[in-house]
Amino acid sequence: MSTPKRTVPKPEEQRGLRCPACGCADLRVVYTRPGRGGGVRRRRECRYCGHRITTSERAQ
Ligand SMILES: [Zn+2]
Questions:
Q1: Which residues lie closer than 8 Å to 37 by C-beta, 6 or more apart?
Q2: How is the beta sheet containing 52-57 ordered, strand by strand?
Q3: Which of 36, 46, 47, 60 has the fewest CB atoms within 10 Å around its CB?
Q4: What distance in Å separates the CA atoms of residue 60 and residue 47, rounded to the nearest whole number?
Q5: What separation in Å is there between the alpha carbon of 56 and the centre of ligand 1?
Q6: Residue 23 phi/psi, 5° resolution?
Q7: What is the pLDDT of residues 9-56, one digit of tens each?
Q8: How confident is the model at residue 33, as a pLDDT?
Q9: What is the pTM of this model?
Q10: 37 touches 44 (CB < 8 A)
């Protein structure tokens, strides 16, 4: 019994970010704000469906 797996090439953190609504990868950054722990939070908006998501990224 083998369970089919989804092959995820890369973790979707910074690169390869996709819109959870339509699945497209064409997201523009609305604004960037400093987050906790020295990271940044970016507000992104999908160029196709207009869905907005907030991503938190860690600064090295
Ligand atoms: Zn979208």
A1: 58
A2: 27-34, 40-46, 52-57
A3: 60
A4: 29
A5: 18
A6: 85, 5
A7: 544 445 678 999 999 999 999 999 998 888 999 999 999 999 999 988
A8: 94
A9: 0.64
A10: no
Cβ distance 46 to 21 under 8 Å?
Answer: yes
CA of 8 to the centre of ligand 1 (A): 20
Give first-to-last CA distance, the chain, whole Å: 43
Closest CA to 46 of 16, 10, 22, 15: 22
Task: Report the alpha-carbon distance of residue 26 to residue 47 in Å, rounded.
Answer: 6
Using the mean position of ligand 1's atoms as its centre, give its distance from the Cα of residue 49 in Å.
4
Half-sphere exposure of 10 (CA within 13 A, CB side): 7
